[in-house]
């Protein structure tokens, strides 16, 4: 047997990427776990998820050969994490991709070379087995040609990759034989084969041959361009090189497990199977939590935030099972950063911020966990009172889902009190939740059906809008009408798309909206209007046009951008850069852009921030932006390579926007950013910057809306008009006197309120005196019951307090009407509350006022919308006491 190389995780990752770089691939960076411009995904869940725009033809990549190591999150099997050898919530997927370039006859020999060559992984060929789709004879022949023995090739009907609408096709899977000593089944078990449910044959690589379009009509049509999509789980491959029983005994997880051992009450990994599950849960989940927060997601009760919160709570409960009673997860963030720093240095750089978020959530969950215990104790007490011997499944599931209690923990608490848990009911509730999640996932993964309308159109088109907003003699080099390439288009067409050889119209990108304007013929006649501009797959500016006259391919036209609108957009785009930098300066470097919109009359800027933005900080941000405007700073641009731009300190917002040559916008020494948008020449052109609103729009995402120049002046003028109006209303001689007049009015209101409350108290006392004199004797005890005229429930409670202090009767029932609403109050003396419950009586009489209520045994209240029924309620109370 060939001796196995010893490689750590960083070496395996680098070796894989270097192999494909040597075969002409471009290394693509690992994208954020939070999808950019892809609302169909909750998380980036695979390497191909970041390549969707290339595979469905929306964008043509600069290099059709790409490779990546992509961090991914999947939570569909979260309950299995820790219990199996290889389930993870976050993992890295190594992949190589071809978009219409090479196919099976290239990728299969490369795969075999990477796996078996001594220069690369150097696996023993005898250890490798390959499954393939039975009808895919070409793949089988290519494997045999590469050097695989026929008895190591296994046909498998499941080897067809199809996630619904979009690219699909047969695939081939590669398995590594770890030997029978790793198996959890007897060697002769029917599942003990490559592709079976066993621990011996480890699947390490899946190569998908995308050659069909799965259409909305559920047919499979040949793709215009065949693609290759592969996925190799880093954690799995590393477990082979490190000869680890599972993925967890590798350098990716063991430092975390060792750290948890130090937090626990003497627990050691590998000594107890139950404890090992908790160690694995924590090691897995803290990686996911750390990376997710680092990429801009934050804990919340919905979407990505809920996933983070759930993982964190599972980790805290796992820690408690190991005897860890103090917050500990935040302390593990630097360890995650150290493990991953070779490829993800930003995690370590942002460790303090990530730890702060986790610590806050841990502290908050302590109260939630105590709440869960309180609910459980309440349920146990009720079960004892009613004689029930079982906690129902829905309650057990609520404890699990809302409070983070594993059903095993609920069962332990219940058993101590002689109770059981309805496991079937719990399982049913769990299945229902999983089905909901599975249905949601079914909607998440589909790609668009591949279209090649503009995919093969590669004629050059130049954007000149940085310097010119009008262009003479722009030639139509591409023309489509209602989805078909045409020689001419006329006004009857619903959808006309045009590409010119040069254009002053900006295509929507980076939050900046597209330009609009006119298309004019040689006679000065407007033949059409540009209503939108997007990028074609090969990045030409693709104009969507409303025609008033025919437009011809090859003809030349004058193109005129709406100048006034364009200049407003420029101002707001520059203001966005100033705002971005000011937020970083005031709130901290962790603040990241989460989206933006640059319109003509306002700008919108979304950013990641944990917690509220105070009014004081918001004013600092606004003042800082205006300072830069009034300093009259030149705004300059330069085109350079990415590395040079980074050395300049340029901020990259979303790295997948940038090619080899990037455009950098520099606002003096204040701000430097990658940006392909339009900007002013000097900050003084903005005139004025004013924040209109600020607030939360999602978990950890804040939004600022702001205006500049004439729109800012208009906003301020409207505010001044309102202030003048307020001065007139409060009879202030001058605007500056408004605060003083408001203070005087508030003082007068306060005195009036006190006098009113004193008068109401006097009325209530008179009402109480009249009502308290009428004590009735009933079979169930002494009763005072009356409708009184007071200001509302607050004064009914005051009367009840006086009644209780004077011990005037066993039961008190009072009602009052305020406008069109009715209030009822029932009070029972402490001594009598063992026999009579205030809540029972209020429920009996509240329907008379069309209301409902409840409360404690000694005090209950109800509200309703039928004041006419108050006397009926009093009469019913007297009947109830008989």
Automatic annotation (TrEMBL):
It catalyses: tRNA(Ala) + L-alanine + ATP = L-alanyl-tRNA(Ala) + AMP + diphosphate. Its cofactor is Zn(2+). It comes from the Bacteria. It is found in: Cytoplasm. Residues 742-769 form a coiled coil. Gene3D superfamilies: 2.40.30.130, 3.10.310.40, 3.30.54.20, 6.10.250.550, Bira Bifunctional Protein, Domain 2, Threonyl-trna Synthetase, Chain A, domain 2. Binds 1 zinc ion per subunit. Pfam families: DHHA1, tRNA-synt_2c, tRNA_SAD. Its main location: cytoplasm. Its EC number is 6.1.1.7. Catalyzes the attachment of alanine to tRNA(Ala) in a two-step reaction: alanine is first activated by ATP to form Ala-AMP and then transferred to the acceptor end of tRNA(Ala). Also edits incorrectly charged Ser-tRNA(Ala) and Gly-tRNA(Ala) via its editing domain. This is Alanine--tRNA ligase.
């Amino acid at each position: 047997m060939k001796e196995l190389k010893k490689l750590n995780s960083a070496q395996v990752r680098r070796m894989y990427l270097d192999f494909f770089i040597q075969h002409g691939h471009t290394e693509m960076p690992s994208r954020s776990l939070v999808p950019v411009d892809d609302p169909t995904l909750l998380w980036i869940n695979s390497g191909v998820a970041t390549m969707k725009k290339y595979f469905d033809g929306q964008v043509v990549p600069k290099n059709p050969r790409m490779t990546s190591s992509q961090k991914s999150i999947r939570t569909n099997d979260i309950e299995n994490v820790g219990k199996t050898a290889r389930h993870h919530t976050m993992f890295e997927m190594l992949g190589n991709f071809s978009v219409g370039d090479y196919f099976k006859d290239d990728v299969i020999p490369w795969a075999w070379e990477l796996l078996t060559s001594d220069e690369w992984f150097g696996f023993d060929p005898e250890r490798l087995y390959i499954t393939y789709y039975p009808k895919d004879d070409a793949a089988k022949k290519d494997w045999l040609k590469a050097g695989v023995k026929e008895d190591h090739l296994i046909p498998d009907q499941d080897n067809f990759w199809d996630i619904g609408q979009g690219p699909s096709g047969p695939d081939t899977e590669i398995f590594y034989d770890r030997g029978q000593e790793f198996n959890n089944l007897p060697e002769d078990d029917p599942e003990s084969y490559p592709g079976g449910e066993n621990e011996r044959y480890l699947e390490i690589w899946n190569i998908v041959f995308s050659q069909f379009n799965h259409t909305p009509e559920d047919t499979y049509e040949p793709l215009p361009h065949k693609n290759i999509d592969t996925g190799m789980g880093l954690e799995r491959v590393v477990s082979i090189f490190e000869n680890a029983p599972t993925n967890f005994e590798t350098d990716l997880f063991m430092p975390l497990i060792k750290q948890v051992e130090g937090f626990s009450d003497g627990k050691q990994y590998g000594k107890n199977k139950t404890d090992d599950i908790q160690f694995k849960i924590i090691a897995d989940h803290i990686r996911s939590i750390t990376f997710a927060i680092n990429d801009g997601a934050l804990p919340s009760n919905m979407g990505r935030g809920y996933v983070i919160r759930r993982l964190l709570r599972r980790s805290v409960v796992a820690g408690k099972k190991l005897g860890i009673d103090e917050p500990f997860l935040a302390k593990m963030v630097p360890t995650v950063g150290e493990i991953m720093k070779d490829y993800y240095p930003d995690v370590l750089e942002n460790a303090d911020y990530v730890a702060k978020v986790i610590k806050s959530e841990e502290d908050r969950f302590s109260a939630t966990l105590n709440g869960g215990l309180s609910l459980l104790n309440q349920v146990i007490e009720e079960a004892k009172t009613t004689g029930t011997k079982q906690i129902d499944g829905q309650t057990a599931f609520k404890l699990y889902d809302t409070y983070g209690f594993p059903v095993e923990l609920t069962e332990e608490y219940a058993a101590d009190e002689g109770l059981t848990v309805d496991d079937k009911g719990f399982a049913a509730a769990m299945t229902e939740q999983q089905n909901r999640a599975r249905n949601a996932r079914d909607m998440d993964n589909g790609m668009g059906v591949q279209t090649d309308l503009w995919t093969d159109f590669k004629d050059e088109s130049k954007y000149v809008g940085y310097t010119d907003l009008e262009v003479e003699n722009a030639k139509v080099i591409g023309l489509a009408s209602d989805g078909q390439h045409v020689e001419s288009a006329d006004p009857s067409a619903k959808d006309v798309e045009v590409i010119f050889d040069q254009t002053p119209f900006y295509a929507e990108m980076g939050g900046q909206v597209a330009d609009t304007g006119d298309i004019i013929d040689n006679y000065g006649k407007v033949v059409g209007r540009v209503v939108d501009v997007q990028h074609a797959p090969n990045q030409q500016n693709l104009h969507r046009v409303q025609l008033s006259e025919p437009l011809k391919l090859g003809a030349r036209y004058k193109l005129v951008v709406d100048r006034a609108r364009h200049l407003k957009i420029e101002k707001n785009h520059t203001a966005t850069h100033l705002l971005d930098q000011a937020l970083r300066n005031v709130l901290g470097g962790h603040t990241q852009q989460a989206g933006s919109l640059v319109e003509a009359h306002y700008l919108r800027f979304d950013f990641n921030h944990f917690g509220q933005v105070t009014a004081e900080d918001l004013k600092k941000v606004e003042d800082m932006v205006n300072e830069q405007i009034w300093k009259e700073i030149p705004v300059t641009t330069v085109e350079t390579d990415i590395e040079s731009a980074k050395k300049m300190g340029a901020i990259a917002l979303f790295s997948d926007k940038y090619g080899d040559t990037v455009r950098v916008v520099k606002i003096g020494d204040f701000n430097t950013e990658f940006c392909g948008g339009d900007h002013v020449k000097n900050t003084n052109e903005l005139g004025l910057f004013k924040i209109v609103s600020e607030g939360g729009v999602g978990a950890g995402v804040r939004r600022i809306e702001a205006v500049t120049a004439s729109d800012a002046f208009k906003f301020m003028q409207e505010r001044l008009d309102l202030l003048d109006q307020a001065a007139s209303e409060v009879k202030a001689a001058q605007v500056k006197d408004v605060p003083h007049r408001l203070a005087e009015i508030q003082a007068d209101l306060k005195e009036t309120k006190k006098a009113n409350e004193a008068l109401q108290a006097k009325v209530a006392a008179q009402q109480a005196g009249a009502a308290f004199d009428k004590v009735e004797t009933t079979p169930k005890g002494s009763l005072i019951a009356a409708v009184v005229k007071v200001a509302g429930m607050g004064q009914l409670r005051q009367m009840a307090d006086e009644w209780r202090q004077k011990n005037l009767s066993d039961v008190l029932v009072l009602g009052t009407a305020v406008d069109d609403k009715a209030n009822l109050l029932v009070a029972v003396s402490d001594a009598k509350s063992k026999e009579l419950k205030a809540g029972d009586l209020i429920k009996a009489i509240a329907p008379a006022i069309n209301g409902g209520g409840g409360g404690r045994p000694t005090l209950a209240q109800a509200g309703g919308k039928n004041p006419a029924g108050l006397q009926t309620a009093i009469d019913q109370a007297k009947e109830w006491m008989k």
